Amino acid sequence: MIKIQRLSTASFKITSPKGKVIMLDPWLVGDPLWPADERELSKLAEINIIIVTHAHFDHVSGVEEICKANPAALVICQFELALSFMAKGLKNVYPLNKGGTAVVDNIKFSMVGADHTSSFLDEKGGYQYAGSPCGFVIEMEDGFKVYAAGDTGLTADMKTIIGDFFKPDLAILPALGTMVMEPEQAVFAVGLIKPKYVIPSHDFPEKFSQAASPEGYEALSQKFPIVLGAKQKTVAFSELMRKKHRRVKVIALNIKETTEIK
Hints:
Helix content is 27%, strand content 26%. The chain is α/β, with parallel strands linked by helices. A hairpin with a 5-residue loop joins strand 2 (12-15) and strand 3 (21-24). Helix 5 runs parallel beside helix 6 and helix 6 packs across helix 8 (230-244).
C-alpha cells in the first residue's frame, strides 16, 4: 500500500510500502497553497527523497528548505539541474538523465522524457535554463509503479516507453492546459499509458478561502490569471474520463488530502 498526500498544485508526498517518504516537486517559497502545519520543520524532516522534474519555481523552490530540515534527504533530478543544486551547496544530490535509473532503499526511480521547459529566475530578473524537463517512473519496494509526469504536453513516449515498457499502476498527470496538456489530451494520454489509477495535477483551488494563504493566492491569480480557471479543467478531465475510460479510477485530491492505494 502507498499513501499520497497533495500539498500544492503539483507537489505530492508519497509514502512507500516500507515507509520511505518521497517528495515530488516541492513548492514552498512563495507558495500560498502548502498548509502551514505541513511546513513545520518536523514535517519537512520526515522527507527522505526529493524528486524534481524541472526547474520552474512552482516545482523546485522547496528543495533547499527540505534539505535544511533533513540534511540526509536525497535529491534526484536531471543532470544540469543537479549541478545547479550542487553549486548552491547541496551535498546529497543524485544526478540522473533520461533512460537512467537510480535505486535508493530498494525503490527504483527511472527518468523519462517530458515535453516542457526547465528554467529558473536569476538574480538579475532573467531566466536561465537548467537542463531539460523530465518525468519519473517510481517502482516501489513491492513492485507498484507510479508515473509522475511532471509538466508535459502529450508525447508518443507515453505509449511506447511509459505504457508498453514500464506499465505503471498509477499516473499523476497535468490537465490544466496552456502550460501543460489540455483535459482532452490528458484523457488521450491515459489511453496510451493504461494505468489503473490517475491523479490529475496542476490545478488550483476554486476559491481564495480554500488556500492556506488567501491573500497570497489572490496575488498569485492576479499575476497568473490562468489559475482562476484551473479547477474547471480538472472537472472537465474527470467528466471525460467517465465517458472514455470508466475502468480507470480518477482520484482528484484537494490540497492536504491523502489517499491510500493498495
